[in-house]
């Protein structure tokens, strides 16, 4: 390693000593300048703390030249981290004090790194153990190719170039494997049938026209025309009879588990360059319906229809709140995330400023701080929410002023940023069902697409987006218009829905005392806008997730707390990296196809509009209102619906492990006929990647770039940057003539070079802007980030001073040239912007100062738009399973399967409800590799209330197997030969609602270093600690119609995690 | 047979030698063995930490405490009196402090300075969970100290109970004496002795293998370098929380305070009337653990 | 009727041969344990919440036995004036020395830094009972060595003189070991004022049993009637010692349970009815106390019975310190009960069962004692007894009033 003292002595300034402070911290530097430091005591350097013969050692971990700021990825929160390098090894990770996740308020952005370095921010235990993920001895260094059947864990390592070539060119790639001697694998080149940007553009337009057709009749005609028009190119299509399936290129699917900015730009560019529409994430396994319900709530009314909703959600401003009702949100152990959310809550709890209630079937750590715990039955969120809505509406505890404001101008008048459609009038059909909003012009009122409200009993037109014509409407309207149209206001619809049951009935359904419901609703409505409902996976991950989320978010609308300090907030946004300011336009992608066609997961399009429409129920569900349907990606391949897939890329995901009934994915992945080519990108052989044909090693989060982005509780504008802080574990490869570690990006660059994909290599972003090294993208993106979004550069960060520039290089002295090379880095962005790039990287990203978050009690970067209490678009969408339209308003929906049936048959003989939760020490497949975390909880168990156990005659600590109606044998079918039973030990706890059992996520692994694997003929032994505990996802119900998939929310796309009933069998 | 004169002389000189040995031992031990902590002006640290970070109205308590720490370090050690205050109402039971401490002090498996005890009370639905982080109490009256046969552990002028790993013989008597289980013994175990064995070694290997480098790094406890991989101390020693003395020296708070995501852990100088910790212990009815034992802990709990 | 002639014997070679053979086997077997400790750094099943276990118990056991033997011997010889044991002195002292050395060896294995043990002598802190223990132990060892030397050279004055030092030193050593546990307020089970007293009683019982055994095996009077008589007398004293010891244990039980300090009574309950109930009820009380009592009471004429009783008592007695050491540690402070699940590791647990390594080290320790004893006996005492036998003036008659018997030397 480079000698610290020698390398820094040149560029020393007074600041230098701030870091280490006393002689200890500064080591040799300090020693030579003791006098200047005026440290008391003549010698000091030895036995400063402890007198003995062992010499003192400088505390190098507090030195700026050993400190690198980045972003954690031990869970998706991505807290800012401060990596401390000891002799070239990252041995400590603390919080980055510049980053608002770890310090409150965080240090001002202008703070000099020398001044920041002694300050450590707070992060959770997983974050601190992160270096053990990176240095895990099970990490891959080279490309692995399967040498046995899929899932047998027999591998050979192959050169990077060979891996790339085989994937691109295909052939009899697995001739050595039993049963595959003659199997020809189509390479990417062959699958990418359409490589003509102009042609793809024209075809895309014509497919759009097919979809836009008014009837199936017209649609059929357009298809015929299409076939004639492109008669020469029909071989490029998946199915000429269904041109809307798109080109064969769509048979390449790129999926991911966890993907953040920068890498997502790379991956999307890669997918688009191959001409495929199929780039799909994992949102629905996570809290899909939370995102997509809020997307539906945030659709804006433009040109007569609703669109443009944002895939996001709102959370409570716990920092300033007076009251928060947390629903199925596990703040102190999970969520996004414990460090940032805890610090924004505990002070209020201790001082009494903030009071909280928790609705969760499980008494969480959060509940231990709550004024009230509502132990609802799993799956009954819609009932609980409707109960509270009813009470609030009937007791006039809602914010009438807010709700009356029918447009932007009205909102502004009453000092609100946002407004709802509570007063808008909805047409009631003959069947009594609400339909579309009444357009004013239907009554001969208003202009253009204006809508209608009732004001003091008279109908008036309203332009929702008007900034100068305020309209305040009547709240509860149930009337007939002059033309006889029966109308109700949105709020009236809500009231009706809430009156479907009495309070007592709702209470009974949800299993919570009526008095507790009322007390909570009273408290929630007693703190003005400093109160909110903060929800997470608990309500979202059900078959009724969309309506659970809508119920709770509707309650927030009744509070009128959106954008209010202490109320409901959204994220303060992220600084752009793609070149909005005009520095480097990284979106530019010259020469690529226009991808078109139905996505492999059938999202973003109405079933009825496609040529595949064949009545109800559809073979599988369609998702016009959701995307990134994790549970659909692989099972749709299994069903070849809408079309067969030939090559699957999987980046950083383990759907096999993560999904409910994930074992159904294993069965498909193992079948080379259903999925001919499967390429995974992983840092080790994981529970999903073990089924791949090829695994390309990746750089871990400590060795790579990424833009972590933000979360919805973060009120400041931010952009945390993940950057390489340690030498990479994978070996180097050479792509486009440049050396870089084998990793996700180099895999894509290698394939792009082999296939000559547009948007890679020379002039990839436009003239003079190559993409040959992954740094070409990232450093330019950071330059964009530093430059800001103003074309004149007025929003750029300051230049790093000379001292900072020296620190910058010093702190990276342990990185190899393929990663960090000062000359190369500077030349990528240019000398002019370089000092700004260094400024950003020296702080681990770009962060707005804390005091900018709120202005006059409202979010500076707030929502400020229409909120759809009633959703016209949702109400117009048809359930592909039942053929019924979806409800457009919050209401109670029971747990149902795809055909709309309640699963009572599956409950028979299985009287325990199964839920799952997170524990602070583990994160899915990422942390079981960390020895420091293991002592906190070496294994999980099945949490059960002793009352249930007694009833069932079970003992504390007893081993039991989890079985369900759809997995009666209670195991994971891993391969032909191997099944892993779901056996766990019983943990008695009063924290579980009787009748409900739970298990913590992150245990029971069958790969990830837990089992033996063979690589190049050597058996690498697994560690049994990594297999400890139980992962009961395979017991979760599959849908009775879509049999190879878990139950799901047909609207918001969420998978069902908390609806299954199980039985515990002594094992 | 009677003793001859010669024999008597032999016998008495033997006994005399014994007594002399005792005397010499006792004296030597007073002269050499007595721990002499650095005190006086030599222990003053004029740290400039946070000097350039302007104080703001709303600061993270971590910054306030760090400023107070810097102030305290400007006094000689004997004028500091470190205490810790743990607000269990704010503790979220996250174990960040536990792991932070393990990482900072490079603790091997089975050694822990600050576990967080979690207890469940009551019956559904009237139940409660309590979290009690348990560092060393740095007792004013530490029962662990007098039992040490070799003076390897003692109380410093600033109140921290210290262990000199180079002196400790590893008898574990102090472990039995500490009522809080705050001392654990380093039995010489290592993380990752057996991880991913069996693969190829050398540059061409496909799987990383070997021992991870973090497992070999020396710790900075007591501002010295302790390299366990060389086999010596602190392997075989009693170990315990030392309020991160090595960090205090450079103006940093103990790790369990800086990494406390609930901000439940306060640290500071009880001799500083304006310090946050002083404010807290006067404002709240603070409690100590096992007060009946008379150990007088310097770790206080707000409950 | 003339008393049969008393003869000192020096030809009982097979006794120390057995000692040698058993000792060597023990050394060989036990070496595995020592190897595991020193080379593999296997520290047994010990942990931080139960930091002391079998090794400490074995140490206490050996020291008890050693001191009990010495004190018992003096008491029997000088106070109770048991005849026929005068010449057993050197054997007893030698056995005591071996026991002390074995104890040192075993406790040395228990140290994290055995090679720093010297520090306890040089940098001692006398506020620690352990320091006193170490010093007294060392001092005692020196005393015994001198005494042995004195015996060999027949410096009776010196021996008497040494006895005056030896007795208080022995009492102090036992007391200090009692205090070692007793001062620990953190372990209520130990923190009983009665502990040193109980330790003292225990050591007398164990010591007396060992004297009986040594008498049976090594008495130079073997084969003569006085040998038998002495054995019976010793048996009687042993029986009384056991009864008094029982009384002391009972008192300890009452003192522990009566105030119902939960931590104490819980530990006691754990001891008596916990998972190791058998070690108290079966091993200690049944095998180590009742059976010997019965044997001593009903078969007092049979040397075999006496020997069996003594052997049983000596060998099961290790349970007594074990059942003091472990329950004192293995019961969690109620306030900290959750600490075991707060950070999970086998060494952070209250469940302690000595593992094979620990037993092997103890076996090695016994091997050290037996081998040393055999070798020293062979080298130093064989001649001594032979010489003794040759000296007519040392005939037992001198002290028993019996007729002087013709010695072998005289008959030659
Ligand atoms: N029982 C239960 N199951 C759950 C949940 C639950 O609450 N309970 N929660 C669900 C939720 S919210 C989510 S988001 C999903 C997450 O599900 P996934 O996104 O599928 O899971 P991850 O653990 O993030 O990613 C797993 C894969 O990424 C690999 N990996 C780790 N680090 C890297 C890296 O740096 N690069 C690359 N290329 N690969 C890497 C791992 O080895 C592993 O193979 O789990 C779901 N599953
Ligand atoms: N330690 C850790 N932290 C993480 C992660 C991790 O894997 N580990 N993953 C990150 C990711 S990807 C995510 S998505 C977040 C998830 O963050 P959260 O959603 O906050 O975490 P979960 O533990 O999944 O929370 C689900 C909660 O819902 C409760 N619940 C179960 N069924 C119901 C129900 O029917 N109704 C209601 N109201 N509640 C119910 C469960 O008991 C549990 O407390 O955590 C992030 N942070
Ligand atoms: S909450 Fe997640 S991102 Fe933050 S430190 Fe913990 S593991 Fe890392
Ligand atoms: S808590 Fe234990 S180790 Fe710490 S000073 Fe008190 S007695 Fe000693
Ligand atoms: S273990 Fe070390 S510090 Fe503790 S009493 Fe023994 S020698 Fe002293
Ligand atoms: S003060 Fe330091 S040593 Fe003590 S528990 Fe906290 S982090 Fe560990
Ligand atoms: S870090 Fe803080 S909040 Fe977390 S367990 Fe420790 S004391 Fe409690
Ligand atoms: Mo997630």
Task: Determine the strand fraction of chain C and express it as a percent band.
Answer: under 5%
Give the terminus-to-terminus CA distance of chain A.
54 Å
Main β-sheet of chain C, in a few words? none
What does the radius of gyration of chain A come to?
29 Å
DSSP strand tally of chain A? 43
Query: What's the helical proportion of residues of chain C?
Result: over 70%
* Backbone structural class of chain A: alpha/beta
Largest sheet of chain A: 9 strands, mixed
Number of helices of chain C: 16
Describe what this molecule looks like in 3D:
- The complex is a heterotrimer of chains A (1067), B (303) and C (412).
- Chain A is an alpha/beta fold.
- Helix content of chain A is 26%, strand content 16%.
- Chain B contains 7 helices and 9 strands, in the order H-H-E-H-E-E-E-E-H-E-E-H-H-E-H-E.
- Chain B has helices at residues 5-33, 61-73, 96-104, 173-177, 245-248, 255-258, 276-283; strands at 82-87, 116-123, 126-133, 153-155, 161-163, 183-185, 238-240, 265-269, 299-302.
- Residues 1-5 and 394-412 of chain C have low confidence and may be disordered.
- Chain C has helices at residues 13-38, 54-79, 89-110, 119-122, 129-153, 156-182, 195-218, 225-257, 262-273, 277-298, 303-316, 319-330, 339-342, 356-390, 397-400, 408-411.
- Chain C is globular.
- Chains in contact: A-B, A-C, B-C.
- Chains A and B meet through helix 2, strand 3, helix 5, helix 15 and helix 16 of A and helix 2, helix 3, strand 2, strand 3 and helix 5 of B.
- The complex binds ligand MGD (2 copies), iron/sulfur cluster (5 copies) and molybdenum atom.
- One ligand MGD binds at residues 75-77, 286-287, 327-330, 333-337, 359-362, 364, 376, 378-379, 381, 536-539, 915, 917-918, 920, 922-924, 1001, 1058 of chain A.
Per-chain topology:
The complex is a heterotrimer of chains A (1067), B (303) and C (412).
Chain A: H1 4-8, H2 16-20, H3 23-32, H4 34-37, E1 67-71, E2 80-86, E3 89-95, H5 113-116, H6 125-128, H7 130-134, E4 143-146, E5 154-158, H8 160-169, H9 188-191, H10 197-212, H11 216-229, E6 252-256, H12 263-273, E7 279-280, H13 283-286, H14 288-297, E8 300-302, E9 305-307, E10 315-316, E11 323-327, H15 338-343, H16 346-351, E12 355-359, E13 372-374, H17 381-394, H18 400-404, H19 408-413, E14 419-420, E15 425-428, E16 434-437, E17 451-455, E18 458-462, E19 478-480, E20 486-489, H20 490-498, H21 503-510, H22 514-524, E21 531-535, H23 537-540, H24 545-559, E22 568-569, H25 630-639, E23 647-651, H26 655-658, H27 663-669, E24 677-682, E25 694-697, E26 706-707, E27 718-722, E28 732-735, E29 738-741, H28 744-755, H29 774-787, H30 802-810, H31 822-829, H32 834-841, E30 845-847, E31 854-855, E32 858-859, E33 866-867, H33 872-875, H34 904-907, E34 912-917, E35 942-944, H35 946-952, E36 959-964, E37 971-973, E38 979-981, E39 983-988, E40 996-1000, E41 1013-1015, E42 1018-1020, E43 1061-1066
Parallel strand pairs in A: 5-41, 6-7, 6-23, 11-12, 11-21, 12-13, 14-33, 23-24, 24-25, 34-40, 35-39
Antiparallel strand pairs in A: 1-2, 2-3, 4-5, 4-25, 8-9, 10-22, 15-16, 15-20, 17-18, 19-20, 26-27, 27-30, 28-29, 31-32, 34-43, 36-39, 36-43, 37-38, 41-42
Chain B: H1 5-33, H2 61-73, E1 82-87, H3 96-104, E2 116-123, E3 126-133, E4 153-155, E5 161-163, H4 173-177, E6 183-185, E7 238-240, H5 245-248, H6 255-258, E8 265-269, H7 276-283, E9 299-302
Parallel strand pairs in B: 1-9
Antiparallel strand pairs in B: 1-8, 2-3, 4-5, 6-7
Chain C: H1 13-38, H2 54-79, H3 89-110, H4 119-122, H5 129-153, H6 156-182, H7 195-218, H8 225-257, H9 262-273, H10 277-298, H11 303-316, H12 319-330, H13 339-342, H14 356-390, H15 397-400, H16 408-411
Helix pairs in contact in C: 1-14, 2-3, 2-6, 2-7, 2-12, 3-5, 3-14, 5-6, 6-7, 7-8, 7-11, 8-10, 9-10, 9-12, 10-11
One iron/sulfur cluster is lined by residues 136-139, 142-144, 161, 178, 180, 182-183, 240, 295 of chain B.
């Amino acid at each position: 390693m480079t000698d610290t003292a020698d390398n820094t002595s040149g560029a020393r300034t007074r600041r230098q000593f701030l870091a280490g402070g006393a002689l200890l911290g500064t080591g040799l530097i300090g020693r030579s300048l003791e006098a200047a430091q005026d440290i008391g005591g003549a010698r000091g350097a030895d036995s400063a703390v402890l007198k003995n013969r062992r010499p003192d050692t400088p505390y190098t971990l507090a030195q700026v030249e050993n400190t690198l700021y980045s972003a954690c990825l031990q869970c998706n929160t991505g807290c800012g981290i401060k990596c401390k390098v000891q002799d070239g090894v990252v041995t400590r990770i603390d919080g980055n004090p510049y980053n608002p996740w770890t310090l409150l308020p965080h240090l001002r952005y202008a703070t000099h790194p020398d001044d920041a370095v002694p300050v450590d921010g707070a992060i959770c235990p997983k974050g601190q153990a992160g270096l053990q993920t990176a240095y895990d001895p099970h990490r891959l260094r080279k490309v692995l190719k399967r040498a046995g059947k899929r899932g047998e864990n027999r591998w050979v390592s192959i050169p990077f170039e060979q891996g790339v070539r085989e994937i691109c060119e295909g052939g009899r790639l697995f001739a050595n494997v039993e049963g595959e001697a003659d199997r020809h694998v189509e390479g990417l080149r062959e699958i990418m049938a359409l490589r003509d940007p102009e042609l793809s553009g024209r075809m895309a337009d014509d497919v759009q026209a097919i979809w836009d057709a008014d009837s199936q009749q017209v649609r059929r005609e357009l298809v015929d025309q299409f076939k004639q028009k492109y008669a020469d190119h029909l071989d490029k299509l998946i199915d000429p009879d269904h041109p809307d399936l798109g080109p064969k290129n769509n048979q390449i699917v790129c999926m991911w588990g966890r993907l953040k900015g920068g890498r997502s730009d790379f991956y999307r560019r890669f997918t688009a360059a191959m001409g495929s529409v199929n780039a799909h994430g994992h949102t629905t396994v996570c809290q899909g319906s939370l995102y997509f319900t809020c997307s539906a709530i945030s659709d804006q009314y433009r040109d007569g229809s609703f669109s443009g909703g944002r895939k996001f959600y709102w959370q409570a401003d716990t920092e300033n709140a007076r009251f928060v009702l947390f629903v199925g949100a596990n703040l102190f152990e999970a969520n996004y995330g414990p460090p940032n959310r805890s610090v924004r809550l505990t002070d209020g709890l201790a001082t009494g400023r903030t009071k909280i209630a928790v609705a969760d079937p499980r008494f969480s750590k959060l509940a231990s701080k709550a004024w009230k715990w509502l132990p609802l039955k799993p799956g009954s969120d819609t009932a609980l929410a409707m109960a509270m809505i009813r009470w609030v509406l009937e007791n006039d505890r809602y914010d009438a002023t807010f709700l009356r404001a029918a447009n932007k101008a009205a909102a502004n008048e009453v000092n609100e940023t946002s407004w709802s459609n509570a007063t808008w009038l909805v047409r009631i059909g003959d069947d009594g069902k609400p339909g579309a909003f009444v357009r004013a012009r239907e009554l001969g009122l208003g202009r253009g697409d204006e809508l209608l409200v009732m004001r003091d009993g008279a109908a008036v037109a309203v332009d929702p987006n008007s900034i100068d014509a305020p309209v305040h409407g009547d709240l509860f309207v149930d009337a007939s218009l002059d033309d006889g149209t029966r109308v109700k206001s949105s709020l009236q619809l809500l009231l009706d829905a809430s009156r479907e049951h009495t309070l007592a009935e709702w209470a009974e359904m949800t299993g919570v005392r009526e008095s507790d419901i009322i007390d909570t609703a009273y408290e929630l409505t007693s703190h003005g806008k400093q109160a909110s409902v903060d929800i997470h996976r608990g309500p979202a991950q059900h078959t009724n997730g969309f309506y659970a989320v809508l119920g709770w978010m509707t309650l927030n609308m009744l509070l009128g707390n959106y954008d209010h300090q202490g109320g409901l907030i959204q994220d303060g946004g992220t600084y752009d990296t793609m070149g909005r300011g005009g520095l480097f336009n990284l979106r530019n992608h010259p020469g690529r196809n226009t991808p078109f066609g139905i996505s492999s997961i059938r999202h973003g399009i109405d079933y009825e509009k496609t040529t595949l429409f064949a009545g109800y129920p559809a073979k599988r569900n369609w998702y016009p209102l959701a995307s990134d349907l994790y549970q659909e990606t692989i099972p749709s391949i299994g069903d070849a619906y809408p079309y067969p897939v030939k090559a699957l890329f999987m980046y950083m995901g383990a759907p096999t492990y993560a999904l409910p009934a994930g074992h159904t994915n294993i069965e498909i992945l193992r079948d080379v006929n259903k999925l001919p080519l499967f390429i995974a990108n992983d840092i080790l052989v994981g529970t999903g990647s073990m089924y791949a044909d090829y695994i390309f090693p990746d750089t871990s989060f400590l060795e790579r770039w990424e833009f972590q982005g933000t979360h919805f509780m973060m009120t400041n504008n931010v952009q945390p940057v993940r950057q390489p802080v340690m030498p990479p574990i994978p070996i180097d490869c050479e792509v486009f003539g440049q050396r870089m570690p084998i990793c996700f990006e180099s895999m894509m660059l290698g394939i792009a070079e082999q296939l000559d994909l547009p948007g890679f290599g020379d002039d990839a972003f436009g003239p003079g802007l190559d993409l040959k090294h992954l740094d070409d993208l990232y450093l330019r993106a950071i330059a964009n980030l530093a430059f800001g979004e103003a074309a004149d550069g007025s929003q750029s960060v300051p230049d790093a001073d000379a001292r900072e520039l020296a620190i910058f290089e010093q702190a990276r002295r342990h990185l190899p040239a393929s990663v960090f090379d000062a000359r190369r880095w500077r030349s990528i962005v240019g000398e002019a912007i370089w000092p700004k790039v260094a400024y950003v990287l020296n702080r681990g990203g770009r962060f707005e100062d804390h005091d900018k978050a709120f202005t006059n009690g409202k979010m500076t970067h707030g929502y400020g738009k229409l909120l759809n209490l009633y959703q016209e678009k949702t109400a117009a969408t048809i359930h592909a399973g039942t053929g019924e339209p979806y409800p457009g308003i919050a209401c109670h929906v029971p747990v149902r399967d795809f055909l709309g049936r309640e699963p009572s048959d599956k409950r028979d003989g299985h009287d325990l409800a199964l839920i799952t939760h997170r524990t602070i020490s583990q994160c899915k497949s990422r942390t079981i590799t960390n020895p420091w975390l293991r002592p906190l909880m070496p294994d999980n168990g099945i949490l059960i209330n002793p009352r249930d156990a007694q009833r069932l005659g079970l003992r504390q600590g007893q081993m039991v197997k989890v079985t369900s109606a759809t997995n009666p044998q209670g195991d994971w079918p891993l391969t032909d030969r191997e099944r892993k039973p779901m056996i766990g030990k019983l943990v008695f706890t009063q924290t579980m609602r009787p009748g409900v059992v739970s298990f913590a996520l992150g245990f029971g692994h069958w790969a990830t270093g837990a089992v033996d694997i063979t690589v190049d003929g050597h058996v690498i032994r697994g560690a049994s600690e990594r297999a400890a505990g139980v992962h009961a996802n395979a017991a979760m119900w599959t849908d009775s119609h879509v049999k190879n998939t878990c139950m799901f929310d047909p609207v918001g796309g969420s998978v069902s995690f908390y609806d299954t009933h199980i039985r515990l069998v002594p094992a | 047979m009677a003793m001859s004169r010669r024999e008597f002389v032999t016998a008495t000189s033997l006994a005399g030698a014994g007594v002399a040995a005792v005397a010499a031992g006792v004296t030597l031990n007073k002269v050499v063995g007595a721990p002499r902590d650095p005190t006086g002006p030599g222990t003053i640290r004029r740290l400039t930490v946070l000097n350039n970070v302007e104080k703001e109205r709303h600061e993270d308590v971590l910054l306030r405490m760090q400023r107070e720490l810097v102030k305290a370090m400007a006094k000689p050690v004997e004028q500091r009196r470190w205490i810790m205050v743990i607000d269990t109402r704010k503790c979220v039971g996250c174990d960040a402090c536990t792991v932070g401490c393990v990482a900072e002090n490079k603790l091997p498996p089975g050694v822990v300075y600050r576990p967080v005890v979690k207890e469940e009370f009551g019956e559904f639905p009237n139940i409660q969970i309590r979290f009690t982080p348990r560092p060393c109490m740095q007792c004013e009256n530490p029962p662990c100290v007098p039992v040490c046969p070799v003076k390897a552990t003692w109380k410093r002028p600033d109140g921290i109970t210290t262990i000199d790993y180079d002196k400790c013989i590893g008898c574990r008597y102090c472990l039995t004496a500490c009522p809080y289980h705050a001392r654990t013994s380093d039995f010489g175990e290592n993380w990752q002795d057996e991880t991913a064995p069996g693969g190829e070694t050398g540059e061409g290997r496909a799987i990383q293998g070997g021992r991870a480098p973090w497992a070999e790094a020396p710790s900075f406890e007591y501002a010295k370098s302790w390299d366990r991989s060389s086999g010596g101390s602190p392997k075989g020693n009693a170990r315990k929380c030392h309020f991160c003395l090595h960090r205090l020296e450079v103006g940093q708070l103990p790790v369990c305070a800086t990494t406390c995501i609930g901000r439940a852990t306060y640290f500071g100088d009880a001799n500083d009337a304006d310090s946050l910790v002083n404010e807290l212990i006067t404002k709240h009815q603070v409690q100590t653990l096992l007060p009946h034992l008379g150990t007088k802990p310097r770790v206080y709990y707000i409950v | 009727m003339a008393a049969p002639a008393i003869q000192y014997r020096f030809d009982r070679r097979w006794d120390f041969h057995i000692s040698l053979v058993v000792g060597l086997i023990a050394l060989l077997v036990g070496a595995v344990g020592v190897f595991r400790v020193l080379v593999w750094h296997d520290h047994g099943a010990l942990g931080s919440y139960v930091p002391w276990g079998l090794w400490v118990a074995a140490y206490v056991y050996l020291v008890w036995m050693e001191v009990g033997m010495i004190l018992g011997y003096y008491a029997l010889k000088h106070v109770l004036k048991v005849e026929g044991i005068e010449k057993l002195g050197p054997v007893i002292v030698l056995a005591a020395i071996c026991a002390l050395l074995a104890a040192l060896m075993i406790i040395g294995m228990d140290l994290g830094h055995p090679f720093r043990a010297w520090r306890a002598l040089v940098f001692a802190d006398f506020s620690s009972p352990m320091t006193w223990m170490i010093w007294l132990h060392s001092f005692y060892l020196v005393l015994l060595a001198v005494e042995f030397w004195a015996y060999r050279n027949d410096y009776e004055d010196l021996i008497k003189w040494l006895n005056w030092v030896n007795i208080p030193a022995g009492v102090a050593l036992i007391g200090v070991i009692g205090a070692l546990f007793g001062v620990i307020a953190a372990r209520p089970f130990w923190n009983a004022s009665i502990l040193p007293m109980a330790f003292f009683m225990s050591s007398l019982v164990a010591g007396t049993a060992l004297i009986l055994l040594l008498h049976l095996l090594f008495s130079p009077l073997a084969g003569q009637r006085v040998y038998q008589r002495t054995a019976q007398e010793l048996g009687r004293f042993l029986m009384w010692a056991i009864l008094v010891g029982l009384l002391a244990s009972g008192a300890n039980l009452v003192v522990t349970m009566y105030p119902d300090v939960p931590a104490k009574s819980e530990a006691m309950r754990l001891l008596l009815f916990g998972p190791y109930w058998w070690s108290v009820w079966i091993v200690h009380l049944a095998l180590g106390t009742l059976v010997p009592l019965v044997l001593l009471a009903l078969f007092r004429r049979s040397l075999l019975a006496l020997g069996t009783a003594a052997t049983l008592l000596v060998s099961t007695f290790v349970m007594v310190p074990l059942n003091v050491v472990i329950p004192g540690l293995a019961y969690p402070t109620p306030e900290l009960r959750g600490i075991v699940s707060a950070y999970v590791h086998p060494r952070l647990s209250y469940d302690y069962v000595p593992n094979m390594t620990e037993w092997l080290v103890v076996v090695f320790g016994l091997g050290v004692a037996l081998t040393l004893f055999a070798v020293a006996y062979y080298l130093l005492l064989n001649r001594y007894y032979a010489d003794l036998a040759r000296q007519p003036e040392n005939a037992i008659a001198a002290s028993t009033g019996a007729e002087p018997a013709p010695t072998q030397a005289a008959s030659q």
